[in-house]
Amino acid sequence: MIAHLDLDAFFAAVELHRNPGLRGKPVVVGGNPDGRGVVATASYEARRYGIRSAMSSAEARRRCPSVIFVRPDHRTYREWSARMWALVREMAPVVEQVGIDEGYLVLPDGDPHEQAELIQLAVRERMRLSCSLGVATCKVVAKVASDARKPGGITVVPPGGEAAFLARLPVRTLPGVGPKAEVRLVAAGVATIGALAELDDARLTELLPGRVGVELRLRAQGVDPRPVSGEPAEAISISNEETFDVDVRDRDELHGHLRRMSEGLAASLDRRGMSARTVTTKVRYPDFSIATRSHSLGVGIDDAAAIGDLACSLLDRALRQRPGPVRLVGVGVSGLDRHRQLALPMEDELPP
DNA sequence: TCTGGGGTCCTGTTGCGA
DNA sequence: TCTGTCGCAACAGGACCC
What we know:
By secondary structure, the chain is of the alpha+beta class.
């Protein structure tokens, strides 16, 4: 059997350990409520006020003026996460971490509920963290099940009961159905996972065209052949971006931000011993539309100046096509390779 | 009350060489 | 030599995830 383990309000839980004075109070880990910050995690006390992840911090404060804001500290969360997963690896034969606070594992032989309880207990006793587990024959059902009794719950879906377990839940609870798909499906009268599972080919292609639709219908039927992979996945891309408190139109200032972010990317590539062949610059305009411009080189690069030069020229290209103030700029690298830089790009490889 | 940051994957279009 | 077309890589955008 497969289990999906999900830590409950993880960032907030770590902050409560660092500062026990926050216990019992509404706490939000997130961005600046006076700027453009959003909520990353809300403690369960804060959730009572209707505060949720991805809500703007300003809205969170409006709902609960006494809420305490804490800035996220991802480095510390990564450390806690690494310790927690090391502990789980001692107890389960195969573990696949898929985020900082969640992952799949193959349960040891024995009664699935008892095995899940042992892991939950170990995480509580040794890490002082609360987690929820869902247990099923496949990933998608285990994931939905882990959400069924949060926080601190365990939900076991017996073999053969997958489709029945999913059937009555809202379509949006199926992983892969986001806000856009939900609107289309519900407008067409497909409000539950069960209704999605029963769609015929014609209706499915109409509502969710392409491979996505076929995949989602299978998942809705409780069918998910993806194995639990014990191999840690290597990064495909690395990026840095920043939303400004006030929109910026000054080109030199934007270049400055891109160069600073490029230094961060170069440092990150260096740590991993990797180089990148593609650089992508991202711009978000005040109306929230996004433009990306990318360029690939014949050879991998890993130094801040080369990444920064390319990022700035790509920004200029985007701004020539649509000038004006921008809300966010970002730079990313992809086409990652273990090999180090051998040569600087030729002059004629730089974009116009 | 305006909407973060760091990612992955999929899709449609375009340009190019065989 | 011209044209078509096939396949591929690059590019851009979009949906989704935590």
